[in-house]
């Protein structure tokens, strides 16, 4: 199950207490001390927040007498690390939406809810930090219903709040559960102040649950009230169908409610054996049953760079049983892979296992030909022709130029960046110019990536803002002559080129036209003339920017039977273009991006005003069904270097941003960089 929610909601602290109550830890770690299981990377310890996908399996003996194998996938709450959330959801059977009783529904809560809905996952809500000052469970419940609609089923009420939070009222059994300092509970009568509210809520919840089961509803209307066990079984089906979303209340610090949370998760969560995985057979979506006896099909959902064992791939077995020594084929890269050994991760701890049946999560080292989001299958089985459903695309919105500190760093930079991108698919590397640009989802995202680049791969770089890709084009048509005349003994250099240079419409590129007649320039030299023109354009115009949208017509020239050469005509053509640009003058073109922003309607005006202040032109707006609005605009790239950070500030983090290059436009003279 994937733990989702806003940053600081208490996900990691809750994981620690669950592991402690399960007997895996003798004492829970603390985020403040950097001692938690799931936040073990130095970058996480330094910042006190989750930055990657933490894995924490534990066994739990439930009230039904069975021992369940539970795997928690602790995801980051920061939007900069949404790629880890996507990976966790790709492997989960249930989303555990963690909401702070102090802060209530936040921007991260909205994002998590939307992602779980997009993934089609059942959701259980757990309200944490009920022991903190200003905790208000009832207010949070009202916020959830206001933000996301009906279907929330509170199964508990807190007994006391803030420092007086000492137990929970079980809504289904109408019992009070009081907790001791070790996190263990015992049954006691409900306090008078809670009993009436709890009984009213019991009736509401019972009606809500039976309303989705015709047989049970008929019995209820006839006066046959279902037992708590019957209600739980019915609720479990509603949870799986996303018709109901149970709400529980805990404190990850004091342990109140945590053991009951684990019990209910085991009882209400869908059985992985009953869930099917969706993959692609060609372009058709097919469902794969989680059959441990079936052909092996494995989904690699996350790649990690371990400084000791190298690449570690987190996998979920969709079908069959995975064993050490298995030979499989990656269905995307067609690479043959051997599984050297299997283990389960618990934070940074490796727990060896002999086999991993369908529905379970494990880890494999050194699968070098298996990127995140791909499948491994038996070469001769039906899975060999299947591919994974493509993961959610998150276009980068923030970039930095990288400059290696030493030659050794330069030599290793490309390989190290390749491994970083393999680990985090929301990172991308752009080498379209003479600079290396790393792009991602925000400033913290890139800062962490560069820290890992230095710590894990030993590559150190300095950074600078990504320069705006200005261009130049000629202002008006002009004729120019380029010549080379040099005689210094032996073969000289001689070439004369007559050019007509004129602007083309924006976005047209470059056009070279041969209008030479009478053999004034031998045809064998014309390719050299064209190369000289292109080199001059790349070298830049009077402002120093590459020249585009140019039509160059060569109509006359002179040559010498002995002293002319490719080099002479190449140099003469470049000289002619430079003279033409200097004589006619140039205009600077600035890149313009298409910006699409989805924000709450309440901040639409603020966002549009901010875009206008950035010289943006609003091209369209559209209201969406979920109470948000999509704003589309054309904005100069020079105004967007830190836009994602400013947008999050304006919207409180509730914004989705996509930026893509669109076109070039003339830059106002007063804004041309000196």
Automatic annotation (TrEMBL):
InterPro entries: EFG_II, EFG_III/V, EFG_IV, EFG_V, EFG_V-like, EFTu-like_2, P-loop_NTPase, Ribosomal_Su5_D2-typ_SF. GO terms for biological process: ribosome disassembly. PROSITE patterns: G_TR_2. Residues 1-273 form the Tr-type G domain. Keywords: Elongation factor, GTP-binding, Nucleotide-binding, Protein biosynthesis. Pfam families: EFG_C, EFG_III, EFG_IV, GTP_EFTU, GTP_EFTU_D2. NCBIfam families: PRK12740.1-3, PRK12740.1-5, small_GTP. This is Elongation factor G.
């Amino acid at each position: 199950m994937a733990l989702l929610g806003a940053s600081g909601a208490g996900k990691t602290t809750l994981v620690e207490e669950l592991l402690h109550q399960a007997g895996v830890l003798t004492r829970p770690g603390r985020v403040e001390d950097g001692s938690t299981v799931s936040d073990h990377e130095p970058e996480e310890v330094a910042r006190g927040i989750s930055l990657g996908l933490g894995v924490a399996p534990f066994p739990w003996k439930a009230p039904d007498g069975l021992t369940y194998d539970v795997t928690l996938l602790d995801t980051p709450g920061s939007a900069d690390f949404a790629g880890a959330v996507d990976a966790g959801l790709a492997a989960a059977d249930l989303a555990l939406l963690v909401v702070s009783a102090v802060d209530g529904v936040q921007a991260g809560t909205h994002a998590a809810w939307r992602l779980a809905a997009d993934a089609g996952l059942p959701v259980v809500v757990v309200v944490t930090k009920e022991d903190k000052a200003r905790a208000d469970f009832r207010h949070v419940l009202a916020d959830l219903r206001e933000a996301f609609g009906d279907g929330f089923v509170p199964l508990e009420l807190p007994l006391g709040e803030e420092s007086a939070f000492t137990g929970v009222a079980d809504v289904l059994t109408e019992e009070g559960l009081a907790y001791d300092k070790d996190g263990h509970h015992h049954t006691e009568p409900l306090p008078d102040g809670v009993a009436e509210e709890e009984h009213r809520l019991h009736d509401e919840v019972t009606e809500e649950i039976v309303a989705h089961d015709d047989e049970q509803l008929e019995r209820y209307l006839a006066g046959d009230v279902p037992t708590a066990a019957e209600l739980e079984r019915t609720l479990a089906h509603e949870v799986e169908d996303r018709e109901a979303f149970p709400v529980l209340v805990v404190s990850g610090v004091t342990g109140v409610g945590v053991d009951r949370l684990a019990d209910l998760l085991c009882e209400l969560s869908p059985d992985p054996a009953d869930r099917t995985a969706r993959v692609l057979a060609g372009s058709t979506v097919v469902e794969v049953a989680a059959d441990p006896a079936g052909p092996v099909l494995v989904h690699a959902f996350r790649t990690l760079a371990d400084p000791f064992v190298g690449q570690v791939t987190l996998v979920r077995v969709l079908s069959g049983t995975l064993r050490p020594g298995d030979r499989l084929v990656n269905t995307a890269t067609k690479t043959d892979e051997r599984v050297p050994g299997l283990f389960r991760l618990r934070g940074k701890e490796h727990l060896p296992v002999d086999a991993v049946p369908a529905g379970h999560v494990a880890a494999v080292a050194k699968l070098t030909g298996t990127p995140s989001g791909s499948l491994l299958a038996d070469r001769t089985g039906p899975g060999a022709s299947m591919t994974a459903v493509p993961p959610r695309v998150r276009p980068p919105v923030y970039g930095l130029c990288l400059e290696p500190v030493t030659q050794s760093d330069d030599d290793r930079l490309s390989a190290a960046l390749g491994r970083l991108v393999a680990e985090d698919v929301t990172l991308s590397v752009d080498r379209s110019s003479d600079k290396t640009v790393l792009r991602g989802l925000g400033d913290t995202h890139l800062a962490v990536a560069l820290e890992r680049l230095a710590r894990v791969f030993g590559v150190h770089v300095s950074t600078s803002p990504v320069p705006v890709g200005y261009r130049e084009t000629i202002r008006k048509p002009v004729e120019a002559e380029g010549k080379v005349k040099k005689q210094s003994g032996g073969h000289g250099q001689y070439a004369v080129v007559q050019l007509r240079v004129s602007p083309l419409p924006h976005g047209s590129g470059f056009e070279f036209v041969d209008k030479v007649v009478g053999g004034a320039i031998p045809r064998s030299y014309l390719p050299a003339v064209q190369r000289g023109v292109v080199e001059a354009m790349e070298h830049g115009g009077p402002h120093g920017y590459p020249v585009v949208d140019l039509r160059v017509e060569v109509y006359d020239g002179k040559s010498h039977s002995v002293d002319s050469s490719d080099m002479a005509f190449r140099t003469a053509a470049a000289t002619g273009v430079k003279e033409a640009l200097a004589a006619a003058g140039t205009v600077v073109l600035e890149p313009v991006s298409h910006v699409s922003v989805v924000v709450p309607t309440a901040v639409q005006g603020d966002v549009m005003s901010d875009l206008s202040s950035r010289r943006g032109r609003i091209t369209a707006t559209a209201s969406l069904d979920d109470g948000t609005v999509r704003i589309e605009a054309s904005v100069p790239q020079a105004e967007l270097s830190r836009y994602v950070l400013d947008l999050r500030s304006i919207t409180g983090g509730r914004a989705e941003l996509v930026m893509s290059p669109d076109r070039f436009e003339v830059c106002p003279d007063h804004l041309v960089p000196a």
